[in-house]
Each structure stands twice: as C-alpha cells, then as structure tokens.
Design brief:
The protein is mainly β. The chain is about 5% helix and about 45% strand. The chain has one helix and 48 strands. The termini are far apart.
C-alpha cells in the first residue's frame, strides 16, 4: 500500500512540474514609427523615432537601397538627395524574434522651386487707378506671396486687386510657394504706367450712346458743337467748350445712326440729318425741324445718312438706307425723293459717295447682307454689283489704296474684308478677318507713303482685335488684341506720326501707335464703346480733343494736350471721314470734299 502511495505522489509531482515549465517565445515583435518627416519636404535632414510592442527590443534600420544597420531611436540622416526615399525599421526582441513586416515610411525631398506666371494684368499704360492680377504656377496647387512697389511681401491669391493707386509707374511681383515649401527665387514681375487722360467734360444722356459724333459750328458762333444721338430718342447739340446743351431734338425712337451735317437747303446755315424711326433734317442753329420723312415705308433707319450733290444741280441730296429694303436719295431742301433703289434685304449700312469710275459724277456705294452695290448718283442705275453673302455689310471706305490713280472700295461683309476696283467691282484682294468687321478707316499709319486699312474685329469667341492691313495687297501689318470698335486716325501726340483711336467692347477707348499697334493710352468707361471717336479742337485752345459716346449713357471729351496738326496728319478724324459722312479719303479733314 505504501509503495502505491509513493508512486502516486511521485507521478503527481512530476506531472505538476512539467506543467509549470515556461514555453519558448516564438512571436515576432511589432515595430511602429512614431515620428517621421512630412511626405513632401524641402529638407535634406530626416529624423525618425520608433518603438516596438515588447520590452528590450533592438532595431535594424535601412534607408533603401543602402544596407541595413543596427540602430536606435531616434535615427537621423543628413544631406539627403532630392527625390523619393524609403525608410525601413524592424525590431528584434530578446528571444531573437525578428519583425517580418518592417515599418516603413516613404517621403519625397523636393528642392526645385516652382515657376510663377502672371496670366492677367492691367494694360500698359493703364487708364485706371486700380489693378487686378491673376497668376498661376507650374506645380499646382501653390500658395503665393505678392509685393507691390516698395511694400512688404504678403500672402495673396490669384485675382488680387489693388485700388487707390497713384498715377505713374508701378511694379507688381508675385512668387509661388509649392507644397514642399520651396519659393520661386525669380518672382514674376510686371511694370506698368498709370496714365489718366484728362477729361474736358462729359454729358450723361438718358440711355446708351451708339451714335458716332460729328463736330461743326452749327450756330455760327465761331465755336464748334458736338452733335450726337442717344438711345433715349434725342439728338443732342452740345457746346464744345463745356458740354452744355445747345439744343436737344426728340425723335420717335432710338437714335443709333451718326449725324451728317451740311447746308442742305442753301440758306447759308448748317443743317443736321439723322436717322431714327424716320429721317430727320434739323436746323443747326436751334434744333427746329426742317423736314422729316413720315411715309409708312419708313420702318427703322439704322443707316447713317450721307450728303452730296449727286445730280450736279448745285443742291445737296441726302442718301440713306432703310430697313424696308430700300436706299433713298432725298432732295436736301424738302426731303422729297429724287430716286429709290430696291434691294432684296434691309439696308443698315451707311452709303458712301465718290466718283469711283472717273466720269466726273458721284456714285453711291453701299453694302447689305447679300452684296455690295455701286449705283450712278444721278438716277440710281446700277454701275456694278458684287455678291458676297454674310452678315451686315460695313460702311464702305473709298480711296486709291494701290496708287494706280483710281479709287478702290474697302468694305467688310461678315468675316471678309474686300477691296474692289471702283470702275467695275472686280476684286483687288480679300482678307478673312476671323470675325465680324466694323468699318475700315484709312491712313498712312506707318509713314511709308502708302495707305493702310485699320479695322476692328470680334470673333465668335468674343475675342476682339484691331488689324492694320497694307492697302496695296491686303497683307497684315499688325494686330492688337483688345479694341474692336470703329477707328479714327490722327496724330494725337505731336510726334509727326499717326495714331489709331478706337473703342472696345471691353469698356475702354484705346489709342494705338500707327506703326506697330502698341498701346499709347487707354481711357476706361463704365460700358462698351461702339462709336467712332471724333478728333478735333472743340474748345478753340489750339489742341486736339477726342469725343466719343459709350453704352454707359455718357458722351466723353478727352484732352490730348497735343497741338492741332496739319491736315495730312488728320486723315480720318471721325466716322466715315467727314461731317457729310462721304466715306471718301482725301487726305484732308476739311471741306470741300
């Protein structure tokens, strides 16, 4: 019995001792990186901190693709190269187990600074005391710092605007900062001049102004007046000195056509002829009505009238197109019809007058959407027709543009500007403008002894341009983005060279150097400028002023402070060249034409 108890006790002790024996550690540790560089940085230094989930671990580190090495936390690296890097670390516990899934960290060192580009800026020179800039970088997204003149760098975003600036030169700088913190070491910079053209006066009408001004001494006081229409239905005569109203004649509709001025009834005094919903002839002295065409045929008169003695009877006639598909020639004395020409479509373009076939008599040239017509002035018979379908034909401009001693007609229909021989309407050249044309002005703008053609264009994407073409062959002389209105040409800065003054859909009037189209100055308005400016001395100070209207309802007169030049430097000073709206280049803005 005792022997059996001993054996039982011995077995119990042996079994108990076996259960209490410690098991072998075969579980690998887990490694964690607790501190690391940013994913994108411009620092060549890197510091890592790491730990494991067991006590008494040792570590091995590897900066790929270098060999691994025993390491301790923190582990640092210096003078690393630009580019991507991967850091691995794994723990080894006291039992010798190795973390088979090392902790890793991938990051990129970017030492290359971004490049900054200014994408939108004020014109140079600018006519505004404010300036807005837009910019971008080649590593978006970027943050930016801006600096104006001698100020301090400050955080900024694209489309930053500065207001209350002074006249003179200013410099704007902007530098991009990429996500790594690199700053552009060569900031984008733009220097411009603020030049505020002095305003002699402005007059506010009741509505938009799409009529181009004519300027003449209509009341025989020895001082010029400005005559212009408005969308408020009035024809205005304003004193040139200060813009006060001499008289205002109310029509029955918007006055968008441009006035023609002449002594149409041979009374020794000037009259003003304008289109609206009718054709009106008004006495220049006081704005009283001489006559108007009231026939039911007259729908709307968008065409600007022209005045000339078509039948050589010593009396002027009024020539005007109408939306009832007719061109009318009216006796200046009483508005009675001399003859009428019927087209297939409305006549919105203004007719031009010249002896285009050298027969000693005036012809009438005009364009419509379906073609260009040249009619004998005496009776309206057809001299020739040129068929060119498109949008509304621009008013023709007439001059000897190829120095052959014969006049040519330059006219835009839709996107095509065409030069036609006056005798027979054959094509001298044509030029695809890429957009709808306004109307051409003529002058020797590059002083080469030959005429050039200047015209405004807006394409289907609302991009606007001014183009200058050589008259001989229609080749491009220069193009300027921005202005797209109806140009006038004169020497407005007393340099003996011609400048182009032209409005724009983009709420401004531009003055461009004739030689290359570079900007001389800009005058900003509150709405777009469709009218052709008139350039003359309207306040008798011996210096030129520029008069124009805008869709902001205003009529503006700008002082150039430039002396009135000789006639050859005022070759095309207003809409259709002269106050009779003949459209004929003579090299002289003064009568007789």
């Amino acid at each position: 019995m005792v022997k059996r108890l001993f054996l039982f006790f011995f077995s119990f002790v042996f079994i108990s001792s076996s259960c209490e024996k410690k098991e072998k550690d075969i579980t690998p540790p887990e490694t964690t990186i607790t501190s690391y560089p940013e994913h994108l940085t411009n620092s060549t230094f890197a510091r890592f901190e790491f730990a494991c989930n067991e006590d008494h671990c040792i570590f091995q580190c590897q900066l790929y693709p270098a060999h691994s090495e025993f390491c301790s936390s923190p582990k640092t690296y210096n003078e690393l190269s630009e580019g991507s890097h991967i850091f691995y670390v794994w723990a080894i516990d006291s039992a010798g187990n190795v973390d088979r899934t090392p902790a890793s960290w991938k990051w990129t060192i970017d030492l290359t600074p971004p490049e900054t580009t200014i994408t939108s800026q004020p014109s140079n020179p600018s006519g505004s005391l404010s300036a807005e800039f837009e910019f971008t970088c080649n590593e978006p997204p970027c943050t930016y710092e801006c600096l104006l003149d001698n100020g301090e760098w400050e955080n900024c975003t694209s489309s930053i605007e500065y207001t209350g600036l002074s006249e003179g030169f200013h410099t704007f700088n902007v530098r991009a900062i990429d996500l790594a913190g690199n700053k552009d070491k060569s900031p984008a910079s733009y220097t411009w001049k603020i030049l505020i053209m002095p305003l002699l006066w402005s007059y506010t009408t009741g509505d938009y102004v799409a009529s181009s001004p004519s300027i003449a001494d209509i009341d025989n006081d020895g001082k010029p007046e400005v005559i212009i229409g408005s969308g408020d239905s009035y024809l205005y005569a304003l004193n040139g000195e200060n813009g006060s109203v001499l008289w205002a004649y109310q029509t029955n509709g918007d006055v968008t056509s441009s006035p023609a001025i002449a002594d149409i009834d041979n009374d020794g005094k000037l009259e003003v002829v304008i289109g609206g919903n009718k054709v009106y002839a008004v006495n220049g002295e006081d704005g009283t009505l001489l006559w108007s065409i009231t026939s039911g045929q007259w729908d709307s008169v968008y065409s600007s009238p022209s005045i000339g003695d078509l039948n050589n009877d010593g009396k002027p006639e009024v020539i005007v197109g109408c939306s009832d598909n007719h061109l009318y020639v009216l006796n200046g004395e009483d508005g009675s019809q001399l003859w009428v020409y019927t087209t297939t479509i409305d006549v919105k373009g203004s007719p031009s007058l010249a002896d285009i076939d050298n027969d000693g008599k005036l012809e009438v040239v005009f364009g419509t959407r379906d073609g260009i017509y040249a009619l004998n002035g005496e009776d309206g018979s057809v001299l020739w027709e040129y068929w060119e379908g498109g949008n509304e034909g621009s008013p023709p401009s007439i001059a000897d543009i190829d120095n052959d001693g014969k006049p040519e007609i330059v006219i835009g229909v839709g996107h095509i500007l065409t030069a036609l021989n006056g005798e027979d309407g054959s094509v001298l050249w044509s030029y695809n403008m890429g957009g709808d044309t306004v109307y051409p002005a003529l002058g020797d703008i590059d002083n080469d002894g030959k005429l050039e053609i200047v015209i405004g264009v807006m394409d289907n994407n609302l991009k606007s341009y001014t183009l200058a073409l050589n008259g001989e062959d229609g080749s491009l002389l220069w193009v300027k983005e921005g202005p797209d209105g109806a140009p006038s040409i004169a020497d407005i800065d007393n340099d003996g060279k011609l400048e182009v003054v032209i409005g724009s859909f983009w709420k401004a009037l531009y003055a461009l150097n004739g030689e290359d189209g570079s900007l001389l100055w800009i005058f900003e308005t509150e709405s777009y400028v469709e009218t052709s400016p008139a350039i003359t001395d309207i306040d008798n100070d011996g210096k030129l002023e520029v008069v124009f209207g805008s869709y902001d309802k205003k009529i503006y007169t700008i002082k150039t402070n430039s002396p009135v030049p000789p006639p050859h430097l005022l070759p095309w000073p207003k809409f259709k060249h002269d106050v009779k709206n003949t459209g004929l280049y003579t090299g002289n803005p003064y009568p007789p034409w």
